[in-house]
Amino acid sequence: MIRWIIFIAFILFIDFYAFQSVKTLVKNRLVFLVYWLVSFVVLVNLIYQLITFNRSTGLSHSVMFAFGLLILSIIPKFISLLFLFAEDIFRVVKLVLNYFSTKGASPYFLDRRAFVSKIALGLAAIPFASIIYGMARGKYNFQVLKHTLVFDDLPTSFDGFQLTHISDIHSGSFDDEQKIRHGIDLINEQASDVILFTGDLVNDKAEEMDPWILHFKRLKAKEGKFSVLGNHDYGEYVRFNSAEDKETNFQAIKDIHPKIGFNLLLNDSIYLEKGADKIALVGVENWGTRFKKAGDLNLASSKITKEDFKILLSHDPSHWENEVKSHPNNYQLTLSGHTHGMQFDIEIPGFKWSPVQYVYKQWAGVYQEFNRYINVNRGFGFLAFPGRVGIWPEITVITLKKR
Questions:
Q1: 145, 280, 298, 350: least buried by Cβ within 10 Å?
Q2: Using CA atoms, how far apart are residues 360 and 316, in angstroms rounded to an integer?
Q3: Alpha-carbon gap, residue 195 to 221, rounded angstroms
Q4: What residue spans in the chain does CATH classification 3.60.21.10 cover?
């Protein structure tokens, strides 16, 4: 209950502070009424959705949409709040200086300057428009990102070997069949040797994938399709009637992988062969510093040797940071996902930022340390917030080259 009170108070504080810009520029009571009515409806709708949320059915589209509306309402106001706060610091300093002035200056607060409110509202319009685009189109704005990675120890026959990496499908969030077909077509157009999927097939339950099985079954790769599990595939975030029901759901999720043509690697490995050469695909179950630790890297690698060239599929990039990159087995390339870049970032040439970087050191794209690489896929789907701002759904194509 206390958390609810704090949450509501925080939202109302942002609403009130941002309202000061509106009040400075507009003196129309109807505008004031509309401002507060919209803010009230957005907040009450979210509270209602959360109160009536059934944890037995998992995250619904209505809850995600309510959360999206709150983000749309609050983030622009918060941006304007930061600018207004700077103005208020100036006003307080001016008041103090006036109070001790001998020139007879007024000891009262200066009125808020109109041009400051205009700037605050102008800045707020940028995230407002971005969030609307992210919810309307950005969540299905699939991007094909291509990388060429060079290795000294890549077997000669695999020089030029191409893989497509996808992650975080989150099928329970989908609401546009045509867009999903387009995303799958894009994957197939890459004509890669293998397709590798690094987990989070669903949000919570196996049944979320039912409408999409035939679509994902269309994915094609010359040398096969391989996958691992993500933290959402274990049913940890939904309430089941019994432990047996939870295990049944978990088994059903695992059973989906062969239905769509994927070889699910559960702490296991497999060799891909070309002539006399081979590389090892190693797949671990989810291992994360903040989430389920079912992955066993040593067990997954028990059938291969230290000398093998290895591609590791591990859903959570914190696994690479904490275990993989310093492991004596030398995993040349790790593929992960999980972060989604928090579905919000700013990426321009030479600059990349997202709030998620304060949680995950590797959160989007290719990173290299000790001559080992990790690619963190930005995710195919979306979760909770029904949109993407700046960080688009990703299809990664990686070409392996021998130095």
A1: 350
A2: 10
A3: 6
A4: 142-402
Q: Does domain 142-402 have CATH number 3.40.50.300?
A: no
pLDDT digits (tens, 9 = 90+) for 41-51: 999 999 999 88
Q: Which two tokens stand for residue 184?
A: 């799958």
pTM for the model stands at 0.92
Q: Residue 15: its pLDDT value, please?
A: 92
3-state helix, strand, coil in the chain (%, to 5): 45, 20, 35
User: What are the structure tokens assigned to 51, written together?
Assistant: 């109160």
**Nearest Cα to Cα of residue 392 among 216, 133, 178:** 133
Q: How far is the first Cα of the chain from the last one, in angstroms, to the nearest whole number? A: 61
Q: What pLDDT is stored for residue 137 in this prediction?
A: 96
Copy the structure tokens of residue 102. 């001998």
Cα–Cα distance, 250 to 265 (Å, whole number): 15
DSSP class of residue 114 equals H
Q: What is the largest CA-CA distance in the chain?
A: 92
Copy the structure tokens of residue 328. Answer: 């004596």
